[in-house]
Fold these 3 entries.
Entry 1:
Amino acid sequence: MPVFVKVYQNQIKGSPARGKWYGRVVATKTMSYAALCQHISEHNSVYGEDVCLGVANKLQSCILEQLLEGKKVQFGALGTFFLKAKSSGTEAETEFNLGKNIDGLYLCFAPSRMELNNLTSKMLKMKASLKNVKDLTESKSKKKEGDAEEDDDIQGGETGGETGDNTGGNTGGNTPVEPSDEPDYDQPSGD
């Protein structure tokens, strides 16, 4: 299954990057927490879905507990969770008030950089199979245009065929849907 990328044009007024084209990853589906635990249990695990869910729930609450105690939490070879503060500035140190000037705390994740499981941006790009969403929609429209002609050529009950979209599996449909509730990490900044 490829990682789908949607190409879009920056339309931010006043941005030096206005008019330039960028790529944005789009997801085909969000896997639920319960579905992830079921998936884990299906990977030749001796533990059932309920046990995996129980362990995952405990892990989740313990990670949050440790973060709120001011610790970073390493998550195996995947990487490290940590908190980051967003704050508004003051003219003098004595004017800074934690209640007023801390605007928010954010959960962050730093991927592992170990050779065994290097999850840095460069390595993820090297490992991923990328596919442009536009190519997927174009291949579908070409297939629809040619369906009438292809139906005449199909013999012996052969109805399948490779369309190149490689969207099989439990994806909740073949058309990628861009999440709207996610932060826009790949949006160019106007700075």
Entry 2:
Amino acid sequence: MDPAFVRWLPELAIAAALAWGAGIRLYAVLLLVGLAGGMGWVELPSHLHVLSHPLVMGSSGFMALVELLADKVPWMDSLWDTVHTAIRIPAGAALAAAVFGDASAAVAVAAAIVGGTVAAGSHFTKAGTRGLANTSPEPFSNWGLSLAEDALVPAGLWLAFAYPAVFLVALGIAALCAFFFLRWIARGLAALFRRLIPA
């Protein structure tokens, strides 16, 4: 294995995890990473130390609570996801770039490009899945998906810090699944729109 890749493996996993998590639960990611860094549970890259500032943690904690509640209400979650399309993806790019803030500008820009792509993938997979779940009259599938996301994001962040190689492999498998899943979601949404908007 390339020694340079091994050396950068922890940073790659953290950048990927932050971008992936931002696409699903942005404010929870900011709060959890800031809390973990502030409590000394993990060593954060220098450009992420700001997440441990009490003002930042207070703001991200408040927004994480709002998101937690909004995400449990059918159709409100889809509206929230729609608005956050313009927030989660740039935030994922910025967080990934911040991990490599001490490296060259080219590395940081490359991290932002990849991070934005990862955040977009997780965001659209989440939003599409929840949109389809909202077509069901019962709320339980929606609640189940929301609770699964609540658990998945902290678990993914922990895995990235504790076992970076395992996280990157898991993310690669998830990305492959998401690629095919997004195609299925797109077909389902297209069929839904055709029913709602007759020709």
Entry 3:
Amino acid sequence: MSTKLILLTSFVLALGLAVEVANADFTFGTPTNLGPTVNGSDDVIGVSISADGMELYFASNRAGGYGNYDLWITTRDTIDDEWGTPMNLGPNVNSQYPCMAPSISADGLQLFFSDWEYGTMIPGGVGSTDTWMVTRETKDAAWSAPVNVGRPVNYTGGDICPNMSADGLSLYFASGAARGGSGFYDLWVATRATINDPWGQPVNLGPTVNSSAADVAPSLSADGLALFFGRTFTGQDFDLWMTTRATEDDAWGPPVKLAAPVNTSAVEAFPSISADGSTLYFCSDRAGGSGQNDLWQVPIVPVVDLNGDGIVDSADMCIMVDHWGENYPLCDIGPMPWGDGIVDVQDLIVLAEHLFEGITPVEPEEVRVNENDDGSQVEIEQGQILVVTLESNPTTGYRWEQVENQESYLEQMGEAEFKPSETGEPPLVGAGGWEIFRFKAISAGQMTLQLVYHRSWEEGVEPLKTFSIQVVVR
């Protein structure tokens, strides 16, 4: 620990501690694709990061396997290294039967998964799809053959996407409507008193967490206070959601859909949170990938610039000191980005790691449309920027103008910008170009964005061109 951090810690500890619940402020960075070494033209269904961050398990139908979907692993020597070439877990684990949605235990000795494809399940199961596991004696040993987890975890209606807590005492999974609950698939948890005890009767996470949609693929944080999962209303519109709780004895709070740039109009599913809470891995078919679903990662960043002045300094430390031990969400930033229920030395450590650093604002993700999108529907997340680019020539007197401004959903950002045509020569007087409008999505809803190309002084004259799109803000 640095001298600076020791001094700061001693100073704050002298103020005394008061235990109250607090929630952290954090944001997500820019998602990045894991690259062509890991991803290919195949489909990936499920991902799981090991507790030490050196192993990444996933399910894929890529060439070189034994069945439709096999379990694979990619490894690295250090956190800073690139992921290596994926290796198939071999014929003892994989077969002609599908293996999907893997989840590695914290000790690395148990690997849970689902035989998730109706009609081709592993023989000896309980229901239409089941939770299975393979084990190994040490991390260097070979994996065993699959073993069915059995009842009461598995049920006749189908059980998928298992995820075990770091202490090995809770098993989260998704189960079909036949078991009961709120939707097509609900999130459930089975618990046991010790790792040597059998699993108890599963409990539904309840209507606060579960919806009328399909809620699947849970991923529990190592501290047990955050639960990431996927939700789909149609089977095609998967998004990532998150629910938190103050302590492991408290109920889960209302889920929140992760904002852009994590969720997009593409599929985002099968989250896996790293043990330190700094990185979320997931599957997505968004643009920029190699295959049907690729593996992506996104950093989770605590908000350490507490006063928003662009630098982390003594002013931010004073804010934390002023709210020491209080129920103050802004300052509860450690040890996980979502905090631990109290503003204390753990939060000070996180703040001290960033002292005197400049903070670069994260630019919101842009969704771009042009005249080719006329008449279409565009989906955009709250916080994203909708950029509308339309051909124009202001020297003729014609300009684009919005017909109706529904600022409850979209807020126009300044005046339209004119960009002349790029001909490689200096712009000619009277040459055309494009008018560029920017709108920020500020609340959920649906609206029609309509612009007309006209001379504003000509009353009663039909516009030369119109542009209209349906905008859905999620």
